[in-house]
């Protein structure tokens, strides 16, 4: 019989929370979903993107990743191994003034997600004929892997992810 991995269980829990916010609560719209097994390195990746139902300015994204080592240690029941997944949350939004907007973004995210490592990346498409909008991609990198012991935290994590999009929208507009 198939025994789901930590990755599978966390993925299903995250999907359920976010799809409930989409279908039942209609707070968000799921706008993208990736469920990938990378055969070259035998890893797993799950990514789900969402936007607020009343505003598509900001995209939130939650990503789970498990390496071959993580999956193998769990399936082979290696002693001393603590299987888990890497969790990353991203926010992607257009900005007009990086010197003003980036500190605003950081302030909002640090208020909701204290003591986490943030990385902000600014990008734009170069076109000499017209000014391209800048995009800010802010990643929250969690310092440790998550596993089934954090399963009860998934509803709160999803709620904070959506709340962050709402507060970013209010701050940046």
CATH topology: Yope Regulator, Chain: A
CATH class designation: Alpha Beta
Query: How big is the Rg?
Result: 18 Å
What gross morphology would you assign?
globular
User: Distance N terminus to C terminus?
Assistant: 52 Å
Low-confidence stretches: none
The largest sheet, given as strand count, sense and whether it forms a barrel, is: 6 strands, antiparallel
Number of strands: 6
The fraction of residues in strands falls at: 25-35%
Can you offer a commentary on this structure?
Helices cover 35% and strands 34% of the residues. The protein is of the alpha+beta class and 173 residues long. It has a single domain (6-172), classed as 2-Layer Sandwich (Yope Regulator, Chain: A). It has a six-stranded antiparallel β-sheet with strand order 1-2-3-4-6-5. α3 runs antiparallel to α4 (154-172). It comes from Paenibacillus polygoni.
Observed structural traits:
single chain, 173 residues, alpha+beta, six-stranded antiparallel beta sheet, 4 helices, globular, DUF2589 domain-containing protein
Topology, pairings included?
Layout: H1 6-23, E1 28-38, E2 43-52, E3 55-66, H2 68-75, E4 86-95, H3 98-112, E5 117-123, E6 134-141, H4 154-172
Can you describe this structure in just a few lines?
It contains four helices and six strands, in the order H-E-E-E-H-E-H-E-E-H.
């Amino acid at each position: 019989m198939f025994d789901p991995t930590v990755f599978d269980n966390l993925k299903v829990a995250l999907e359920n929370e976010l799809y409930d916010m989409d279908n039942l609560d209609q707070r968000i719209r799921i706008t993208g979903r990736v469920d990938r097994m990378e055969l070259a390195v035998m890893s797993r990746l799950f990514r789900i993107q969402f936007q607020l139902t009343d505003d598509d300015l900001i995209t939130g994204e939650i990503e789970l990743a498990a390496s071959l080592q993580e999956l193998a240690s769990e399936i082979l029941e290696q002693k001393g191994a603590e299987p888990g997944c890497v969790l990353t949350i991203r926010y992607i939004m257009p900005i007009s003034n990086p010197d003003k907007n980036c500190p605003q973004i950081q302030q909002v995210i640090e208020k909701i997600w204290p003591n986490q490592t943030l990385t902000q990346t600014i990008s734009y498409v170069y076109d000499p004929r017209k000014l391209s909008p800048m995009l800010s991609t802010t990643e929250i990198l969690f310092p440790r892997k998550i596993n089934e012991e954090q399963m009860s935290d998934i509803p709160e994590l999803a709620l904070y992810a959506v709340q962050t999009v709402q507060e970013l929208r209010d701050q940046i507009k």
